[in-house]
Design brief:
It is built from five helices and no strands. It is mostly helical and 140 residues long. It is elongated and about 55 Å long. The two termini are 18 Å apart.
Length: 140
């Protein structure tokens, strides 16, 4: 259930960001490229960050990451419209850079969630580890 919820949350956040930044970047394809780039790089950074936590601290890190994602999403709903409106006249490269800066924090916290739970499951020799990586293998 956890993996499904994290995947669903990732898709909801990604789609919301794509919709929010399409007008700001001027074209849907620009939005897709910049948002996907930002999320891929920042989730990789989050995955790396999760490897730096001790195993005993991962449960707390998951709660913090989930809470941070909720806060970033809620704040984004109120803060992004005036910020994007104020910067819409900037050059495309400046708007793309701003987009990366605004999207990256959400990506980092989302990147912590899957690797952290997989490490926790692997520590207890759970058969659910392959499911965490999207494998079609069935638990024994």
């Amino acid at each position: 259930m956890y993996f499904g919820l994290v995947g669903f949350a990732f898709m909801v956040v990604e789609i919301a960001l794509l919709q929010r930044f399409t007008l700001f970047l001027g074209h849907p394809s620009y939005s897709l490229v910049v948002i996907l780039f930002s999320l891929l790089v920042s989730t990789a950074a989050g995955a790396y960050l999760s490897s730096r936590f001790a195993l005993a601290a991962l449960g707390r890190a998951l709660w913090i990451a989930g809470g941070a994602l909720a806060v970033f999403s809620a704040i984004g709903g109120f803060v992004l419209p005036p910020v994007l409106h104020a910067l819409i006249g900037a050059s495309l490269s400046a708007r793309a850079f701003v987009t990366v800066l605004l999207v990256a924090p959400s990506g980092v916290v989302m990147g912590v969630m899957i690797p952290a739970i997989v490490r926790i499951l692997a520590a207890v020799n759970s058969p659910l580890v392959p499911w965490g990586w999207g494998s079609t293998a069935r638990p024994a």
